Amino acid sequence: MRRYFVGGNWKCNNTIAQTQSLINTVINKLVFDANKVEVAVAPIFLHVPWVQANIQKNVQVAVQNSSLTKMGAYTGEISVEHVKDLGIPWVILGHSERRQYYGESNEIVGKKTRLALDHQLSVMACVGEKLAERESGNTTQVIQAQLEAIKKELTTEQWSKVVVAYEPVWAIGTGKTASPEQAQDVHAFIRGWLRSQLGTQVEQATRIIYGGSVTEKNAADLIKQQDLDGFLVGGAALKPGFADIVAAANKAQ
Ligand code: PGA
């Protein structure tokens, strides 16, 4: 049985005061069965130590990116060694905003994923198609290419530390959520790909979470889908409604 997974991606938001308030008023009040749901939140790097020191123990801390290079003369980067050194268990990689604004290709995402896993981090690996790709009928090809670039870098065993986040780019931050059926179709495709490429054990163990305008209003319907194991939440993760999204996963059958 897969544990549900709910990630809160805070992106480049929140002053320290706002982060403190979010932790105190929402995150530390979350009530859920940690045997059933895993919850992780991703603040900006600079807020991580404060968050680690003040967050309830059932909620894990993630970062939103890590460098393609290890420690060294790479001004402005934060390496997987730094992430690990701080005891941060999770990193989000391949988010569409990284792909779109910072030139992260499938190949770069694959290599970053490998580097993170080689340093014992767990990875939320994001995939998803743009609107034009969906409209031209290329959704599954795009996602397959994104997954293949990751698979090329990993051993089969390393997939045990990967959560795949399906995030259709047209749904991110737009208020346009994929319908439960649209999400399920792609999740089923990803699950089938995992089976054919990596075997039934990886297929059955890997969490596939959905992201893209998830709110407290649509979470309960989405989570009913067979191949949907949780959420990666952006905008709604900054608000009290995040508690309802976690509650939807906690209640799901
Ligand atoms: P959103 O973002 O929930 O604001 O659409 C999701 C994400 O980017 O992970």
Automatic annotation (TrEMBL):
It comes from the Eukaryota. This is Triosephosphate isomerase. It holds the Pfam family TIM. HAMAP family: TIM_B (MF_00147_B). InterPro entries: TrioseP_Isoase_bac/euk, Triosephosphate_isomerase, Triosephosphate_isomerase_AS. Pathway: Carbohydrate biosynthesis; gluconeogenesis; Carbohydrate degradation; glycolysis; D-glyceraldehyde 3-phosphate from glycerone phosphate: step 1/1. GO terms for molecular function: triose-phosphate isomerase activity. Its EC number is 5.3.1.1. Homodimer. Belongs to the triosephosphate isomerase family. Keywords: Gluconeogenesis, Glycolysis, Isomerase. It comes from Paramecium sonneborni. GO terms for cellular component: cytosol. The keyword Isomerase applies. It catalyses: D-glyceraldehyde 3-phosphate = dihydroxyacetone phosphate. Coiled coil: none annotated. The keyword Isomerase applies. GO terms for biological process: gluconeogenesis; glyceraldehyde-3-phosphate biosynthetic process; glycerol catabolic process; glycolytic process.
